[in-house]
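User: Could you go from structure to sequence for me? I need the amino acid at each position, not a summary. Structure tokens:
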């Protein structure tokens, strides 16, 4: 049946790696997937126990989050950032990817006179896709010299049409840290809500962990996830906190959309957020893997592979990102992401996620002849 021309979903970025994965899989030991930031390490046993023994699987879960989970989020924010955010200004989401993808649609309903989503030029692709799915204009903000956002480059006409500004610190893919206080100030000065994706904040290396909420709650929303912090990507627990009016609006519209974190996942999330020790263990794992892979790849490819300021990705200039990824798949059996996945500005770069166990990373080193 023919249909009128309309939106056709582009190829999903990681599906474009299928041919490289097939090449890597031909090597003894198979492919070592360093392309997607999927945690490989185990969550704490108490979290798994809570997931399977919550007795929360029969009833409908609270869309905004159970009292136990929101209390745990409140306590974590207090411990991590020394901030007292009211639980009424905290709500949960079904992982943060769906929140990133759906929020522009809801903000467009709230403010129909505006139609623009501002986001980092080199970034997680869902910021742009969320704008497209909402029928909005995605407008990329170029990076500053230090890798953050060049807020001075935002055209006044785009600011006047903006529904929201996304910031991401530490950045996926670059690992750069953004001046969140400056972003909050820009948003307030221009009447643009600022949404700060902080899901890698527990893995901040070059400065103390920071949140946009340090600059006050008005006009800003911080977005967090347990996927990276606690190795719970499959459980889909995220949360957002900040401006009272924005949080309350999103709470209500998301309730109507039936967006609910499953009850057992909420119980597990509360336990995970109460435990900081396993996060420190994970920090040490990622730091060790970052250092090892940076040394291996820089030695093999004879390129500079800097350590990130935050996050668990290596991001480096590799000439042609696809050519580098192809060569690494054929020789090292490792699958990595060409930088154009994250915007045209990344075409000469590669992103490497250090999300494989140490023995798999050492397998890549042996294949590349690096000791």
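Assistant: Here is the amino acid at each position, in order:
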């Amino acid at each position: 049946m023919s249909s009128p021309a309309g939106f056709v979903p582009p190829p999903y970025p990681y599906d474009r790696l299928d041919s490289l994965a097939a090449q890597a899989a031909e090597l003894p030991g198979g492919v070592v997937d360093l392309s997607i930031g999927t945690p490989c390490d185990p969550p704490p046993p108490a979290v798994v126990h809570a997931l399977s023994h919550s007795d929360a699987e029969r009833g409908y879960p609270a869309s905004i989050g159970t009292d136990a989970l929101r209390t745990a989020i409140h306590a974590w924010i207090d411990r991590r950032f020394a901030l007292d955010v009211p639980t009424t200004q905290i709500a949960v989401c079904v992982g943060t990817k769906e929140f990133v993808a759906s929020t522009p649609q809801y903000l467009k309903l709230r403010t129909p006179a505006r139609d623009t989503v501002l986001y980092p030029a080199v970034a997680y692709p869902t910021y742009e896709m969320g704008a497209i799915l909402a029928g909005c204009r995605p407008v990329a903000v170029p990076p500053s010299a230090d890798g953050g956002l060049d807020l001075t480059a935002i055209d006044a006409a785009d600011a006047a049409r903006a529904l929201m500004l996304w910031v991401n610190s530490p950045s996926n893919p670059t690992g750069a840290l953004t001046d969140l206080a400056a972003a909050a100030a820009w948003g307030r000065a221009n009447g643009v809500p600022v949404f700060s994706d902080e899901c890698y904040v527990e893995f901040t290396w070059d400065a103390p962990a920071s949140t946009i909420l340090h600059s006050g709650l008005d006009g800003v929303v911080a977005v967090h996830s347990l996927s990276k912090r606690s190795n719970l990507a499959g459980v889909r627990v995220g949360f957002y906190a900040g401006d009272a009016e924005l949080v309350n609006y999103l709470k209500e519209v998301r309730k109507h959309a039936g967006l609910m974190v499953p009850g057992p996942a909420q119980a597990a999330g509360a336990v995970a957020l109460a435990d900081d020790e396993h996060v420190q263990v994970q920090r040490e794992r990622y730091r060790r893997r970052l250092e090892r892979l940076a040394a291996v790849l820089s030695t093999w490819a004879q390129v500079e592979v800097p350590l990130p300021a935050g996050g668990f990705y290596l991001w480096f200039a590799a000439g042609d990102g696809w050519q580098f990824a192809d060569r690494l798949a054929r020789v090292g059996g490792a699958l990595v992401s060409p930088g154009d996945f994250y915007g045209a500005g990344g075409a000469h770069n590669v992103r490497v996620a250090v999300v494989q166990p140490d023995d798999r990373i050492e397998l890549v080193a042996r294949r590349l002849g690096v000791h």
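One structural detail worth keeping in mind: The domain at 45-273 is CATH 3.40.640.10 (Aspartate Aminotransferase; domain 2).
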